Amino acid sequence: MSEDPQCAALHKTPQFDDAIAASRDGALANVFVYVKAGLEGKNFEPPSRPVIMDQKGCWFDPRVLGIQTGQTLQVDNSDPVTHNIHPRPHNNREWNQSQDPGAPPLLRRFKTPEIMIRVKCNIHSWMHAWIAVVDNPYYAVTGPDGTFELSNLPPGNYTLEAWQEDLGTQQQQVAVTSRKASDVSFTFKGAD
Predict the structure, then answer these.
(1) What distance in Å separates the CA atoms of residue 83 and residue 121, rounded to the nearest whole number?
(2) Which strands form 32-37's sheet, in the order they lie side by side?
(3) CATH number of the structural domain spanning residue 163
(4) For the chain, what is the radius of gyration of the CA atoms?
(5) Tens digit of each residue's pLDDT (9 = 90 or more) over 2-51
(6) Counting C-beta atoms within 10 Å of the first and last residue's C-beta, which end of the chain has fewer, N or C?
(7) Is 8 left (phi over 0), alpha (psi -120 to 50) or beta?
(8) For residues 6 and 58, what is the distance between their CA atoms, to the nearest angstrom?
(9) Domain residues for 76?
(10) Residues with Cβ < 8 Å from 131, sequence gap 6 or more?
(11) Any bridge partners for residue 174, and if so which?
């Protein structure tokens, strides 16, 4: 962050890129988990509430987020500096826009499912995030304790996929019954 003294001044301690955010016990945050298969032929209305990505402390927050096709992405700038939001999709329309401090939120939608869309700031090279666009509401991002929950998933057989930006993807089959929760664990091995 020393490239931009205004960004550096927002922090009292050095900042590090947290591509792999693991707790002391190995729990992994920022893993995107979603239903990859098992919902074919079902249509889901996008939620009316937006998914919010903020720029705080010269970082994108959150680093990993999920959004449903057709749902609004709201991008805020809480920093006293100008940022540039530049998603780099393969299946959706690319856009690239600057956002001054105090500017109104940017509002965008993605029409096509896509795992994952890298987002960068063309002004601050260390700023990046990831957006997953899915066609159903059954997705989550693991928290600092490594847990996730897919609420109200109807009974059925599903393929779940977990994605982590440096460690890749994993899949598991899960059978959901109407009367009990199903526990699923993904174990990623770090690069040597």
Answers:
(1) 6
(2) 139-141, 32-37, 156-164, 168-176
(3) 2.60.40.420
(4) 18
(5) 778 788 888 787 777 777 777 778 788 899 999 999 999 999 999 999 99
(6) C
(7) alpha
(8) 9
(9) 5-176
(10) 53, 65, 66, 67, 73, 87, 110, 116, 117, 119
(11) 158
| Residues 76 and 55 sit within 8 Å (Cβ to Cβ) | yes
Would residue 181 count as lying in a domain?
no
* pLDDT at residue 190 is higher than 90: no
Binned at pLDDT 50, 70 and 90, residue 162 comes out as very high
Within 10 angstroms of residue 159's Cβ, the number of other Cβ atoms is 14
Does 101 map to a domain? yes
As for how many domains the chain has, the answer is 1
Amino acid at 19: A
pTM score: 0.91
| Residue 10 located in a structural domain | yes
Six token digits for residue 85: 């939001």
Any domain includes 190: no
3-state helix, strand, coil in the chain (%, to 5): 0, 40, 55
**Cβ-based neighbours of 130, under 8 Å, separated by 6 or more:** 32, 63, 64, 65, 116, 117, 118, 119, 165
